[in-house]
């Protein structure tokens, strides 16, 4: 992100915080629904020193990281197969287009009945949601590979596996990285949502769900939501920075 982008982003956040503070202090919105921003941010700061909340954050990040790792391990090889072997791609297109629009959240009750509300359920829905951006970016990246480069290698006697490893895969990696960054945000959303549906154990979603059920818990609910947003912002920033450093040539 450019410096002007950071400035505009900071200005947008400042505007939202100021609006929340004004609405809360002026009583335009009842405090039980929207406390002033200063109250929420203060509580968010206090949660940073709460060992139980830190354990919840660690549980969410563990499920998120494992789910994203599994999604990468499944989606990248599958995307390379579908993009490199057109008959296979055409054969599974109908199945993929049938599964892709199914909302991951809608699967949570079904998966919870089958696997229980533990880590297995969370990983299943996280992987299901995160696999699509990586898969389609991998396939799209393969389609964008310079055909002249591939034909040149074939003219020198290289087989398809060598063309894939020497030309197609390196050229596709920036697309894969973008897919992983998109999937990371989706995976975090599903991690928190699955925890909220699960109802017990540890996790930011469970903290939010439990805080919403006791009087005055709106401060904790919104403070934990702030932390979920900050984690998502940090993850996106790290992955975007890594993309620009690793694939500098793709951003020229």
TrEMBL record:
Keywords: Cell membrane, Membrane, Transmembrane, Transmembrane helix, Transport
Boundaries of every ABC transmembrane type-1 domain copy: 57-239
Major site of localization recorded for this protein: membrane
Spans traversing the lipid bilayer: 61-85, 106-135, 183-209, 221-242
Membrane topology, as annotated: Multi-pass membrane protein
Entry-linked Pfam families: BPD_transp_1 (PF00528)
Subcellular location(s) of the protein: Cell membrane
Keyword check for Membrane: yes
GO biological process: transmembrane transport
Family, as annotated: Belongs to the binding-protein-dependent transport system permease family.
PANTHER family membership: ABC TRANSPORTER PERMEASE PROTEIN MJ0413-RELATED (PTHR30151:SF0), ALKANE SULFONATE ABC TRANSPORTER-RELATED, MEMBRANE SUBUNIT (PTHR30151)
UniProt protein name: NitT/TauT family transport system permease protein
Species this protein is from: Actinoplanes lobatus
């Amino acid at each position: 992100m450019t410096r002007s982008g950071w400035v505009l982003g900071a200005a947008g956040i400042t505007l939202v915080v100021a609006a929340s503070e004004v609405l809360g202090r002026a009583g335009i919105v009842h405090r039980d629904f929207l406390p002033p921003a200063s109250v929420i941010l203060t509580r968010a700061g206090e949660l940073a020193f709460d060992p139980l909340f830190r354990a919840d954050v660690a549980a969410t990040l563990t499920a998120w990281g494992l789910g994203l790792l599994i999604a990468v391990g499944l989606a990248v090889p599958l995307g390379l197969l579908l993009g490199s072997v057109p008959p296979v791609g055409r054969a599974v297109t109908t199945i993929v287009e049938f599964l892709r629009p199914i909302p991951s959240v809608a699967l949570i009750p079904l998966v919870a009945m089958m696997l229980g509300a533990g880590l297995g359920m969370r990983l299943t829905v996280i992987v299901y949601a995160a696999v699509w951006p990586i898969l389609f970016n991998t396939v799209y990246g393969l389609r964008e590979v310079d055909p002249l480069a591939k034909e040149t290698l074939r003219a020198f006697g290289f087989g398809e596996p060598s063309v894939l490893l020497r030309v197609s895969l390196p050229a596709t990696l920036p697309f894969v990285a973008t897919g992983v960054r998109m999937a990371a945000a989706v995976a975090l959303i599903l991690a928190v949502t699955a925890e909220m549906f699960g109802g017990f154990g540890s996790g930011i979603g469970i903290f939010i769900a439990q805080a919403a059920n006791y009087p005055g818990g709106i401060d904790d609910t919104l403070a934990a939501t702030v932390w979920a947003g900050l984690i998502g912002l940090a993850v996106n920033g790290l992955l975007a920075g890594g993309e620009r450093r690793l694939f500098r040539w793709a951003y020229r």
